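Peptidase M20 dimerisation domain-containing protein, Rhamnella rubrinervis. Tokens?
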Amino acid sequence: MVFLKWVSFILFVLGQCVPTLPSDSSFSSNGLSQIPSKFLNFAKKPELFDWMVGIRRKIHENPELGFEEFETNKLIRAELDKLGINYRYPVATTGVVGYVGTGKPPFVAIRADMDALAMQEMVDWEHKSKIPGKMHACGHDAHVAMLLGAAKILKEYQKELQGTVVLVFQPAEEEGGGAEKVLEAEALEDVDAIFGLHVEPRLPAGEVFSRPGPILAGGGYFEALISGKGGHAAIPQRSIDPILAASNVILSLQHIVSREADPLDSQVVTVSKFQGGGAFNVIPDSVTVGGTFRAFTKETVMQLRQRIDEVITGQAAVQRCNASVNFPESFPPTINHEVLHEHFHKVAGEMLGIHKVKDMKPTMGSEDFSFFQEEIPGYFFFLGMQNQTFGQLQPEHSPHFQINEDVLPLGSALHASLAATYLFEFQSQLHLQQGNFHDEL
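Tokens:
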């Protein structure tokens, strides 16, 4: 099945090098370049904008953690029902996958994550989180609203679509591997390409940012239990001190990047957890340390994982301690496909003006959208939110995080335009390839 996906994608790639065929559709020929602006104008209609804002605020008031998004998916399903859009539920426990278009190939997916974070909101406003200790502090409420907005646009132009757009409402992006679970549920078996976005509070509103190749890091988390022998702090010779061993472990882990890594191959190893001991005069039996590691290639991620295991166990042994290392979660880098970058650049340029489509440097953040990209050609981009009205917005995962709702029409229109134009170009090139084969016969 993966082979067939890539064969289908190759047809799209070939299509970037030849002219498109004329068609009776209003999306054809010269009309194709008008789709982005047409969709953006539609998304900016007051009734659609207010609808998206209302959805986003309802979700924001009722944040749910990964695989617990029951009220969120209930709202999504209710809106899809009103739009007359068929969907599959449940997918990956709490996910929803909708379908707009012909119901036939080709299939292209657009994705939004749904889960919130376990933190207390500190923004004092009318639609503040009503759930203590939970908050949408990464913009996933806006992502859902924009994907539903895209669904409404695509439904309006359903007769024009040259295939099927798959709407992926994904659970558990923050923790739990929701993207992997969606793939395991075989919800994207026939999809030829997938697009995703993320709001970005530190970048200017009205602009989009991305790049071909690696854009976000892969990596994982590690946790180690270092065990020694507890005793009185005044008589250390009768103990085996795990705190001393853990201290050596932390220092040695920093040498992996500074002395083993190629300086041109960006890597990070950070120890962010240290737990052990509870009294001034007691050497504990054990200490727990943990952290994260990041890199931009899967090979480097695996190498870091191996060396973290070796360094922790080795340094613990030097201090007569034992160590067990656990890697609870790992994820591949987010790598944008070169040809989909050209498609994005063209569509976003037609919508915003090419001067507002910016290349960005890779960052050490991560996204489980990368799991989709391991199976399907995929593309991920960022939508700026910063403007003078809001002042300096706080970063993601801050209790003071806010959404500039003025960007909702832009995100929804980009989602819809990327999908609709992809289908048209794919279908046109498929017809052209079939025509060429016929000529050869």
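The first strand starts at residue 86 and ends at 91.
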